[in-house]
Design brief:
There is one protein chain. The protein is mainly alpha-helical. The chain has one domain. It is built from six helices and two strands, in the order H-E-H-H-H-H-E-H. It has a two-stranded parallel sheet. The longest helix has about 40 residues. It is rod-shaped.
Length: about 170
Amino acid sequence: MKKMISIAAMMLFFCITAGAQKFALVDMEYILNRIPAYERANEQLNQFSKRWQAEVEALNLEAQTLYKNYQNESLFLSEEQKAKKEEEIVAKEKQASELKRQYFGPDGELYKKQESLMAPIQDEIYEAIKQISESDGYQVVVDRSSATSMIYASPKIDISNEVLKKLGYSN
């Protein structure tokens, strides 16, 4: 129900303002998939991700091995030795968890790499869209791939191919 109300409100807003404004659509997914630098950046990110995931998994495997050894030896260990082994296992698990957070957390290395590799590409696309919008008189440009409440839009107002041409890529 809330979704229908928000769609109706959005349509009403567009109807009211449509007379005075010129709209265009872009499909960022379509554009990005046709830019070789984006594909190279994605490949680099995948390589970093795989390497870092392997490091985290290696630490988790070490922790599991320590735990299995502890279970096998626990009958023969003193309380002091058991406590020491348990601390060692917990420390290894904590180390794996910390490494995972360092690489894959919200401000982790993967996020930073993604920002450094993708930001220049996104900035270039934004600049091309801005130039096309200014030259063709578009007041609003909507990203079709992220507009979840968009039900239908005419392909006539999609400027994705124009953006690719502006960037020097043919479709």
